[in-house]
Each structure stands twice: as structure tokens, then as C-alpha cells.
Amino acid sequence: MGTASYSFTDETVIVTGGSSGIGRAVARRFGEAGANVVVADIRETPKGEGESDEQLPTHLRIRRAGGTASFVQTDVSDPDELTAVVEAAREFGGVDVMVNNAGAYRGAPLLDTDAETLDALYGINVRSVLVGTRAAARDMLERDATGTILNTASISSQLAQPNHAAYDATKGAVMMLTRVAALELAQRGIRVNAVAPGTIDTRISDGDGGDSSLSGAAVDLGKDIPMGRQGDPEELAGSYLYLASDDASYVTGHLLYVDGGYTIL
Q1: pLDDT 10s digits, 145-166
Q2: DSSP assignment of 110-177, as one string?
Q3: Phi, psi values for residue 192, rounded to 5°
Q4: Domain of 188: which CATH number?
Q5: Is 6 part of a structural domain of the chain?
Q6: How far apart are CA 23 and CA 27, in angstroms?
Q7: Catalytic site residue from 6, 105, 167, 240
Q8: Rounded CA separation 155/262 (Å)
Q9: Is 105 a catalytic residue?
């Protein structure tokens, strides 16, 4: 898949959950478009991956391609660690694009969903979006700069699924956080939007956390998805570049579905 002709030269982009799946694809595409990329994740590489050229940590692959990137080990559920990532971006002059992508998935029937599960997902899927949005917006406003905040939601923010009570609730919250932030920041020169992936071929589809996507086990790929297949993380990356670009300068508070047609059924 080719890189769209977007340019983010001299801009700084933070991608949480940038070591794998959707986040990794997004970070690489911004790097290819000339951005300074700060990859924030709890580990440099996904569990089980080695150090082959193809599996190099995201920031090293961006550097190898001639870009500028760094890695900040971050537990996004810890507000102090997440705020520190935004501070780290000042090395490049401050954040221009904040991608709140980190997410986790745990499925269970409603009657078996306990408070601990909800609290764990809330910390990663919701609180990190609020803290990341707030820290990035404050940095932009302190520098009197415009900017863009992008959140990874899910079609689960709109569509209820059996055994997804906690996950769907957190993704619904991400959608509303996006809209409220867009409303409050619109006149300050900061746009806030979200991408809603459908069934994407990432580790979360196997129930291992890492990205926000609909669980592959929840759908019949042939029957339920009009395009008849899962999406690839690379097919989502361009959506983030578009929403961060000047082509989307009049777009804010929007939830962009990238789901192979699932939500039109």
C-alpha cells in the first residue's frame, strides 16, 4: 500500500499503543510523511516478536527509513506517565498531533463481568484518552499553536455486542469524549476526531489487547462484513493522516468508520 501525499514535515506526532497493530501502522505512516514521531507503549515490541528487520521496534524502523522517532515506555493507565510523554515531545518543539490509540479488550457475559474488569478497561480505554487529550491540548494552548487530537474508538462505540459489556461501554465513552473535546476546543484551533475500526487483523482480535477493534470472534467474516474479510492495520493508517491533515481542516467531532461496510448492514 502506497503512502498518500500528505506531508507532516517538522510536525510532532505522539502515538500511544504505537508498538503494534493499528498504532504501529499509524506511527510508521506519519514517519514516512516526514513527522517526528514519539511512540508510547508499555513495551517496544509486541509479545513474542523477535528482532528481525520486519519486526524492529516501530521507532527504529522509522529511523531506518530516514525519519525521526523515539520511544517512551508508557503505561497509559498511569496519568503521570502519559503526561510525561507529552512533555517528552517538547524535544521536537511540542506536540502537533496526538493519537490516543492504546486500548485493550476483554470479553465476558454481562453477568460475569466484574468491577475489576471494567476498571482495568476504563483505565486504558477511557482515562488514557481523557488524560492524553488534556495534556496535548494544554501543550498546544501554552504554545499558542493549533493542532489535532485523534482517538481510536471502535464500531463498538455504536453497536452493542453480546459478551462485550465492559468493552462496548468504554468505547462509547471514547466517542462522547471525542465530541465533548471537539466542542470545547473548536474555537481554540484544536480539532478532535476519532476513527472507528471494525474487525481488524490485530492481536486484540485474538483477545490479547493492544488495539481497539471489533473482536474477530464476534462476527462471521463472510456473512457479517460486506467486504468478506478483516481489515489490515495499514488500511486504517491513511484515515488518521487524512484527519490530521489540512484536507480535514473543517472536520471536528467526527467518528470515521473504517469497517469494510459492517455498519451499513
Answers
A1: 999 999 999 888 788 888 888 8
A2: GGG--HHHHHHHHIIIIIHHHHHHHHHHHHHHHTT--EEEEEE--GGGTS--TTBHHHHHHHHHHHHH
A3: -130, 120
A4: 3.40.50.720
A5: no
A6: 6
A7: 167
A8: 9
A9: no
- Structural domain tally of the chain? 1
Say if residues 204 and 156 touch (Cβ distance below 8 Å).
Answer: no
- Three-class SS of 182-221: HHHHHHHCEEEEEEEECCECCHHHHCCCECCCCCHHHCCH
Cβ distance 170 to 194 under 8 Å?
no
Question: What is the rounded end-to-end Cα distance, in angstroms, of the chain?
Answer: 27
Cα Rg of the chain, angstroms: 17
Q: Which domain holds residue 147?
A: 12-264
Give the pLDDT confidence of 84-135 residue by residue, as tens digits.
999 999 989 999 999 999 998 888 888 888 898 888 999 999 999 999 999 9
